[in-house]
Amino acid sequence: MAYVVTEACVKCKYTDCVDVCPVDCFREGPNFLVIDPEECIDCTLCVPECPVEAILAEEDVPDGQRAFIALNAELARQWPAIIERKQPLADADGWKGVEGKLRYLER
Q1: What are the residues whose beta carbons fall under 8 Å from the beta carbon of 26, sequence distance 6 or more?
Q2: Which pLDDT score, from 0 to 100, does residue 1 have?
Q3: What digits encode the pLDDT tens for the residues 72-100?
């Protein structure tokens, strides 16, 4: 079981989680992060670091967001690793709590 970045991260891209990951399993896209399921060691360190609670255990991903499991795996093969914390997107705070953000995901 790996951890999964879900919809809450879209258009926010807080990177607090990257700082604590011992295996550098995060990958960075234009406005979203994903976790490489092949690299994730299920340590849970990233979960409490996410200010928008976007990181969930695969088994805890709600039915309406199950597509993010495959999306993390797909995009992890395409996007580069992110190993250092960066500033969130400029309007990240305005996107906190917004639902239905998958349509804004930039690949």
Answers
A1: 15, 17, 18, 33, 34, 35, 36, 46, 81, 82, 83
A2: 74
A3: 999 999 999 999 999 999 999 999 999 99
DSSP structural state of residue 81: B
The encoded tokens of residue 74 equal: 């797909």
Q: Map out the domains of the chain as residue ranges.
A: 3-86
Q: At 62, which amino acid appears?
A: P
pTM value? Answer: 0.97
Report helix, strand or coil for 71. helix
Question: How far is the CA of 84 from the CAs of 4, 81, 87, in angstroms?
Answer: 19, 9, 10
Report whether 53 contacts 12 (CB < 8 A): no
Alpha carbons 61 and 86: distance in angstroms, whole number: 26
Token pair for 10: 């879209």
The domain made up of 3-86 has a fold known as Alpha-Beta Plaits (3.30.70)
Contacts of 83 (CB under 8 A, 6+ apart): 18, 24, 26
